[in-house]
Sequence to fold (372 residues):
Amino acid sequence: MPLSASLEQRLLPGVLSVPSDELLRWLHARNEPPYRVKQIRRWILLRRASSFEQMTDLPVRLRAELAAHFRVLGTELREVANTTDGTSKLLVGLVDGRAVECVLMRTEDRRTVCVSTQVGCAMGCVFCASGLEGVERNLEPYEILEQFLHATRLLGPQERLTHAVIMGMGEPLANLNNLLAALEVVCSRDGLGLSRRRVTISTVGLPAAIRRLADLGVQYHLAISLHAPTDTLRNQIVPVNRKVGVEELVAAGDYYFEKTGRQVTYEYVLLKGINDTIDCARRLAELLRGRSVHINLIPYNPVESLNFETPSPHRVRQFTDYLRSRGFVVHVRRTKGREISAACGQLRLRHKRGQAAASPHNATAQSASPGN
Ligand code: SAH
Fold:
């Protein structure tokens, strides 16, 4: 029956989810040399193969054997929503039926992918769609890696990814080992060859994990989602702050800069009437005083079912000008995909709640401004 055949096909593991030693054993049992692993990975990572059949430098019999035991990718692209400004939002289906979001953003000189690290999120930031239903599970390394691959496959043959931001669903530092394993491949020469300096890891701010990342001495760009300059305010909008505190968080940011030499970005979502006053700007300048940091202001991107509002452009300008007058480098993040007007995490929520997105207007994308 075709149905059960396709079901069987779905249950085959993606070849990138198989540990190298296991794949080596599998090849050895078929009298194939170890270098086949490299060949197969090259086809998938660099040459964007979508079937084993395309891997023309492998023996025909091996290609058939591979196809009988594995799939090229273990995740599937379930849906793509495109906007006129060059943003594509991808819904990536996982083997257990769950799904995560991933965004590809195109500007004149950049091709940036934004990837998820968890299904849902446990942090509970009050303005964010990703955490509305809590966290379901961590993504495996191959599930993180394959988001890059799905995005790459939407590019033209001559186009390459230039930047990555780990700003999709989930808290990257709560799944740090799996993220690092995926990034190893993304940033290796045999993988996608992306420079570590062009990968931004955005965190709600878990100091112990920030310090651990700093101690690795790798050159990833770190962005800390601060969103409020005082504990009183941050405790309300970023609940995990109750266990952390802004002073400890900024100290961890300083440590990251000391250890890696990379300037830290502080992200600050502007919520009308909540954290967008000039008094907040003044306190923020006080908190970060004397540090060479970037500040990334993100006007709130409306989330269905949440009651926050976006500040007026005038207020955003005043906030920005104040910080600049105090000597900070400030960027205001542009929202990409205006006509698909919602925030990160909503495409998946709609799917989960049975309201499948039928048009690009039901999808969403957020632009992110990565490091250099
Ligand atoms: N867990 C990570 C990644 C989250 S997404 C973190 O907290 O940094 C990346 C950024 O988008 C974070 O700064 C997050 O707070 C912000 N964000 C989430 N929902 C948003 C919304 N509705 N509007 C604007 N920014 C939002």
Remarks:
- The chain has two domains: 5-69, 76-353.
- Residues 123, 125, 127-128, 167, 171, 202-204, 225, 267, 269, 298, 300-301, 303, 343-344 surround S-adenosyl-L-homocysteine (CB under 6 Å).
- Confidence is low (pLDDT under 50) at residues 337-343, 355-372.
- The domain at 5-69 is CATH 1.10.150.530 (DNA polymerase; domain 1).
